[in-house]
Amino acid sequence: MLNRAEQALIEEKFQQAAGRMGGRKDAFLGPMEGLSGDELLCMKFLIASLPASDMASYDGGLLLKFARHALFLRENVPWGKRIPDALFLNYVLSCRVNNEAIEFCRDAFYRELRERIAGKSMAEAALEINYWCCEKATYRPTDGRTASPMAVIRSGFGRCGEESTLAVTAFRSAGIPARQCYVPRWSHCDDNHAWVEIWADGRWHYLGACEPEPMPDKGWFTFAASRAMLVRSRVFSPLLPEEEIVGRSGCVTEVNNLSHYAETARLTVTVLDENGRPAAGAQVRFEVPNYAELFPIATLQTDGNGRAFLTTGKGSLMVHASRDGLFGWRMEDPCSCGSVTVALRAADDLPKEWEADFFPPEGIFRPEPALSEEAARAHRTKLERAVSARESGYSGYSRAQAEKAARAYPAFQSEISAFLQKARGNRREVERFLQGGEDLELRIRMLETLTEKDLADLNADVLNDHLRCAKPFEREADAETFRRYVLCPRIENERIVPYRAFLAGFFDDAEKKAFRRDPALIWKAVDERIADCGDLDYDALSADPCGLLQMGLGSERSRNILFVSVCRTLGIPARLDPALGGPQFLTGSGWADPRSGRPAGGRSAVLLLSNPDGEPLRYGENFTVAKLCGGACRTLGCDSKWNGRTLRMELEPGDYRILTANRQIDGSVLLRAKTVRLSENETVKKDVRLRESQLASRLRHMPVGEHLLTAPDGKQFPLSVLAAQAPATILAVLQPGGEPTEHLLHEMIGLRDSYRDKNTVLIVPSPGAENPTLRRVLEEIPSAQLFTCEEPGFTERLCRELQLGDRRLPLAAVLDAGMHARFAFSNYNVGTAGLLLQIADC
Length: 842
Known about the structure:
Elements: H1 4-18, H2 25-29, H3 37-48, H4 52-57, H5 60-76, H6 85-93, H7 106-117, H8 122-136, E1 138-139, H9 149-155, E2 157-158, H10 160-173, E3 178-183, E4 193-200, E5 203-207, H11 222-226, E6 232-236, E7 245-249, E8 252-256, E9 264-272, E10 283-290, E11 293-301, E12 307-313, E13 317-323, E14 326-332, H12 334-337, E15 339-343, E16 353-358, H13 373-393, H14 399-406, H15 413-423, H16 427-434, H17 440-448, H18 452-457, H19 460-470, H20 479-487, H21 500-506, H22 509-517, H23 520-529, E17 531-532, H24 545-551, E18 553-554, H25 556-569, E19 574-576, E20 583-587, E21 590-593, E22 598-599, E23 605-610, E24 623-629, E25 632-635, E26 646-651, E27 654-663, E28 669-678, E29 683-687, H26 695-698, E30 702-703, E31 708-710, E32 716-718, H27 719-723, E33 728-733, H28 739-750, H29 752-755, E34 759-763, H30 772-780, E35 784-787, H31 794-801, E36 811-816, E37 820-826, H32 832-841
């Protein structure tokens, strides 16, 4: 397997990895004793591919299971030996997809899939596996932590990043090379998306994860992806793929896949230093506006000539360059210029205020191959079976079942019923934790600190470790402080592991007494014991605190989490700073940073923001605040109380950027930036104002013909009669259960108060009314009216009338009383529900 040069590279990287293992060396090298041949090579590849956090968190015994299963597939699936060696290692053997917890479930997946894919080609097998994935999970928005494939199956749902992690795992379980592809941030709307690429018979194909289609290279996101500025995939491997690389950190490589989906342009960036000479080694961030921040979709370093290159989409980009505390930026359209020069300057020499208009790529419509009626009917049947299998599989996790189990705890019946409903397939572990002994109230309080996703993948033994070690400190702080900052087992988005008993025994009594007297000494101990691993980690991971202490090497994020872990183990309230993520512990005068030894607010500045205009603004949607750190802007989290009009932020002295973003109905964004310098003990007041919307100038006047709609009671209404009931009618044609429709419905629920006085007409296929998200919309927005339309070719005709090239559902438009559409949307556009309200009010 592999040529000599590739084998030598793996050996070199393996030896380097072994040299970093510290006290964890036996955990990895022990299981390798007696191995030889391909088995040994696979183990060396996996170890050479490990980010530092994984090296602290897992062991060689787990990796050996992945190696043996992959080699079994190599010999036993029909296409196993046709897969090129590097592809096999990178995309079949590799145990990591993104930042999920690594669990070995591939043999179990393969046992379920083996008969279903028998006799099929690679591509046919991949399509069948995606139906299986649909049986296991469907789309639902969740929090930012990526659940493991088994946790997604226990829940029966996941966001796109979790669905794609499940699907990639399933494909690799059957020996089909697979990778997660994603848009870091869209340009035409606020959000991102992830899907799957599979390699079959010589090339890569894309699929919507858990969204089966009867053919590859088909998905609701096809047009949306053609409007992206970048599509990436990630590979954890020392073997670099023969594709454009847009980022590399240690063993993690980011690959540019955009040309598979969109028209592209090649952008050359030249960075000049303060003397006008090429700036080698400068960091170049390629940014798009999304969620009111300039988000880096790719970060590169300039070469010896001060240049960096990116293949990107044909829309607007902000190019931000920095080196040695100097920085500069330029907004460019790669399609019109092809090259840009950025000069590095000190902060005082750059504009303090600026405005810019960003435009997304227009996108391209790709005609899809025609599907015979027989094939379409077979697909619908398989899809209905998959949905039915999924729903029947989770039918036992009903409210009635949870309430029945909760009756055993009369004092906490409602709380426990809610926990069990959210835990779904993991409810037995929740019950086991509740039955673990005394202290039921304390157990309830711990579960209250956890998210719905935590409940779906918690382990009772892990929680018991946290509970036993936290209980002695229950009376040392007020109840809420103890619950949130001592008892709670979650610190950030890390994997929850049983570290408290280990940490309590790791330090001697004298050290622990000193730590409790002065928690800043904990940071000193962390700093002395844990060396910074530099770029040897993947920044979306964090290490098991126990393994981190054994290994003695970790990232800043892992070190911060370790500090908080030790504090909570010793009963010291601690957290990560909600704004910038640094470690903090609680003192009598507030939160303190152990690295500086002073209270976080003791020498801070204050930024007072106010919104003088009428409409309330949302942080993270309409505006953000970012701190200038080392020449780049880092967006702050916001845990302060923002009521839409005023915000008080206690911040460290420094330079900050206030950025407002006004997303327009065509996907463009109007930005305004202000830079403010905060000095120690200074209070600065600033207004937050959006740039004036250009909505009215972008509205259209499209006549819509008559359509006959049928209400659930069988009565029929012409669309014109419904439209005449109000000056503006919001019309939506839905595909309940499809991810784009689910997005739109969830947005409407979030804006329920604004929708309650709007004339809203929802049109669905007749079975669609049973969709739970749609039912919730109808319950929470009583003014919404539900209809079906039996006219042949209704959707096609309406798309022509609304002048929509992309005809994938949902369709959404605002009609005036005279049956003219002011604007229309189709398919995937996050934020559509809010834009429809703006158009209706215009």
